[in-house]
Amino acid sequence: MGNLKDKGLTPGLAVVIVGQDPASRVYVNNKKKACLELGMYSEEYALPEETTQEELLRLVQKLNAKEDIHGILVQLPLPKHLDEKTVINNIDPKKDVDAFHPVNVGKIMIGDYDYLPCTPAGIMELLKDTGIDLIGKECVVIGRSNIVGKPMAMLLLHQNATVTICHSKTRNLKEIVKRADVVVAAVGRANFVTADMVKEGAVVIDVGMNRLENGKLCGDVNFDEVSKIAGFITPVPGGVGPMTITTLMKNTLTAAQKQR
Ligand code: GUN
Q: Which residues line ligand 1 (CB under 6 A)?
């Protein structure tokens, strides 16, 4: 970073948040904080709930053209009256540090990409850190969202893992998860993965961020019981979340270098 600054290049990230979703607010604050800590430039656009599609698209176009902004992140989910797909399609793929634009999604599919999606790429770093070789391993991803489940499966496949994606219509979910060497839980349901579903020694990655009635944050995995049998397990909070932000920072840096 020091070197970049000497060359007069400060990576710039624009974060757009629409409405008052409390979880989104926390995520956006963490992203801004990370930029500040790394000496990157960031701009926040906190728009009211009633923002129209046209207003949001106008902002995206403005940011596409802004020279001091190298990365654009529109925090999802957007309020129901806004069309997420159209908004993402309007972000310049070069500035799409989330890797949500169809051009970037397609590049990931082929294995020839500039940006990796933040949460799955952060998880791949965690898996690398375990020292476990993924070749031929049974990896089960629970959840098929465009943000986590689908790209996660693709990144595991790139490492020659055997990948199964489970979702709400999956039959025998418990049996499938039980044979996994690596489980990635991205369901959005508190304590969904229980000890009886997990093989002894498995790596368990918890992407969940569920708010309980008592206000406490809780993952998709029942940490207390699964941690007794897992080989590795990520906590919530403090596991996957910081890795998501790390990848976002890395993507913003790449974006700045590419747009120089
Ligand atoms: N909502 C939940 N995760 C993400 C993310 O990684 N990027 C954006 N833009 N929105 C999200």
A: 73-76, 98, 118-119, 147, 244
Residues with Cβ < 8 Å from 111, sequence gap 6 or more? Answer: 158
* Paired tokens of 103: 């051009």
User: How confident is the model at residue 54, as a pLDDT?
Assistant: 98
Query: What is the whole-number distance in angstroms between the Cα of residue 76 and the centre of ligand 1?
Result: 5
| Closest atom of ligand 1 relative to the 76 alpha carbon | 10
pTM of the model: 0.96
Q: Cα–chain-centroid distance for residue 60?
A: 20
Q: Could you tell me the end-to-end alpha-carbon distance of the chain, in angstroms, rounded to an integer?
A: 14
* Both tokens assigned to 44: 């926040």
**Alpha-carbon gap, residue 60 to 64, rounded angstroms:** 6
Sheet of strand 162-166, all strands in order from the earlier edge strand to the far edge: 162-166, 138-142, 182-185, 203-206, 232-233
Catalytic residue among 96, 98, 181, 206: 98
